[in-house]
Fold this sequence. Notes:
Layout: H1 11-24, H2 50-54, H3 66-74, H4 77-81, H5 96-109, E1 122-125, E2 132-136, E3 148-152, E4 158-163, H6 166-173, H7 194-205, E5 210-212
Helix pairs in contact: 1-3, 1-6
Amino acid sequence: MTPIPPSEAHGVALTERAIASVAADPHRPILAYGPWAGPWLTGEPEPLAAEALAGAVFPSGRPLPPSLRRWLAFDAGLLRRFGWLDGDGRFTPRSLGELARAELGDVWGSCFDTVSDRFDECFLLPGGSDSRRVLATGAGDEHGEYPVFALDIDDIPCVELMYPGLDVYLADTAGVITVDLDGYSCLVQDPRYARRMLTHAQRAFGGEFSEQCFPDL
């Protein structure tokens, strides 16, 4: 794989690389290990209308990250399938607890209710088997990107920082970058993404990379 120049390792430039990879084979599975996730595209790309995208913000009023704005200009169909948008193109976020209950059931999902106030505007992404991938809006990093977390219910339920933004999630999932390290938060060891990972870790977990979640009894 050709190394990505530092200037193209983040944000819109990295998202463009992910789009090019998907466009070259748009109907391939998103996840090699998970056929349930389906293909990247089910037909032709479904870009969000330019006029709708121009003024789009999240329901909270938070701005769209640059990677999402660029991806939606390419295709909105994938994210619509995963519950980001309704039929009219409006964003449909959930709190972390609501999303976890829908995906993992009330018993396991209730463990994440205790952090829902902190992660109040979340969106599901394809990934994991027992675990889930979730983008949570909030304060953007230096590239205006929001973190992507893993929700894990193996042994002790926890939420752990996995990607510093949708840009890096798309690039990794589309095979544009290679992550050879172990662990959900391993990108903190990657010099390209360490600073962004640390920024999100400080804001989300006071400098840690994960937090155990227990039901509020």
